[in-house]
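pasting for ref
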Amino acid sequence: MYTNRLIDEKSPYLLQHAHNPVDWYAWGEAAFDKARREDRPIFLSIGYSTCHWCHVMERESFESEDAASVLNRFFVPIKVDREERPDIDRIYMAFVQATTGSGGWPMSVWLTPDLKPFYGGTYFPPNGAYGRPGFKQVLEYIAQAWISDRAKIAQSSRDILEELRRNTAVESGSSNWVDSGILDSCFQVYRRTYDPAHGGWGHAPKFPRPVSFHFLHRHHASSGNREALEMSLHTLREMALGGMNDLLGGGFHRYSVDERWFVPHFEKMLYDQAQLAEAYVEAHQITGDAYWAGVARETLDYVLRDMTHPEGGFYSAEDADSVIDPGHPHEKGEGAFYVWSNQEAAAVLGEEAQWFGSRFGIEENGNVAHDPHGEFTGRNILFLRSPLTEDERLRFASAREKLLRARALRVRPHLDDKVLACWNGMTISAFALAAGALAEPRYLEAARRAADFILSRMYDPSSRTPSRRFRDGDAASPGFLDDYASLALGLADLYEATFEPRYLETAFALAEALLERFEDKKRGGFFSTTGDDPSLVLRMKDDYDGAEPSGNSIAAAALVKLAAMTGHRPLAEAAERTFKAFAPRLRTAPHATPRMVSAFAASQGKTKQIVLTGSPADPAFQALHRAALASFAPHRTILHAGTEWLAARHPEIAAMREHEGAAAFVCENFTCQAPVSTPEELIPLLR
């Protein structure tokens, strides 16, 4: 068996390639120096450990001695885990999208020795297929071009990089401002692209894009627009009933390949669980319907069961592919862990099989009609056409237990067990929100344990620096913009649920460090990186809210919230500069940045501060705290007058500490109404 230098890395993705015959390097000076000394182009391959087509390209090309011999002879091959190094991925993805019109993973990019890109794409088959040239053919063509057309390649790479620099620049100006009209503009795009039959937006494949629910819930709350809420609820219901939702084990798969949320890509990502759990919790808060709370619980319980480090941090992902037959461990299939033949289900369920099969869509010969790769022949993806009734839920609980026991005997999908600061920040927010809204102490404990894990294993308080990644005892890579921002927001949310001052103090420290290290002081907005890494040929500002909110959107949200909590005006001013910097984008394409639109709305609205007085041990205090947490009041913060750090910053809060007993002051910009002492008095003030 071959072993290359990736064997010394911690990334699960890099370790998957440690036994390829390819002479892989990790991103770093050793590879760059070799390319310069030997005057070779770099072949950069970027992916992640749960990426289906990354696995395919590895089997077809990177495990091939024939392809490896060409790579090793003419190129310096470098592997990058996009989840550990989103900064590298972002730069070269911009290049691939600009030059090919599309992007994705695995990403394949050829660079000059000074790291300038000159050719790229995504997946290349081993031989010409699917309208794509074969990988070996591309390698040989580029190797020859490097010899014969070097000057042209060098000029092309310089020109492309300069074009990318212009296209990714964010220019601010005195006229760059937005108003509340962007909220309706954003909603109208959702309205035009909505699928009234199946929910969601656009056509297949359909991605959940949780930032959409975040915006629509807040737009409904601020405007009273019922249509915004109905679009969200319909989509959330269809997703929860379809095959995209693991109806047995909980948790959502990455996306649906069809328009009706039935056939998923079976990968499970932490950031989806966190954001979708929040969306279902908010649906419960808005409607009072226990169905939404049930979906949120199933999602969060999946994270606790299958994606949690023993010390409390949250793992990153589970693979889509899994072993089909334990007797043949190298034969894997998409979703093999999750799908059932009629015979398998019947053998497990016995007399309940007929009811279960009819209710969950099981058919004798399998229920996937469109299966171009033949991966689901004779197999069934479980789904529901309508929510279970109360009586059916009791029957399902028994059937689920039996099926889960049988499923546990299968080989689980690969777990990417690295802990990422950004995604953990999102998940801390989700658990903190759910703990209050669903009155679930387990979730509060999960949020606290995850935060304490990050702060003890991945954060240096003296420099206010989070690490990007922790795995196998090792914390590595200084955090990026989204790590600082997501952690700051997660810790602020956790403070509201616990009133532990250290969480708010650390959130504030992260926000101040974020301003110092990432803000573009001339043009506003935030770079994704600090600018300390000379290997990065571009310093970019991301603003697109896709599967995850962009770094700029989450930074703006964190700054707006922490400004409201602390009264620290420089945080609010930095958020204003961010909105101003991205004003052209917000005006012309607000649907591309819905999380930033929501942050802008929060900055312009009347943010309420709910300040509680008294002892947290007092049952009356606890009742007020529960009422404040349970309500859907997105433009509000919850503070405890007993927090010394806050009282030192706010004379208003210091004065409230003189109030005897448990009470709630509802304030706007710390101008407060008379205190109330019961939940019944408090709840109407939150609306």
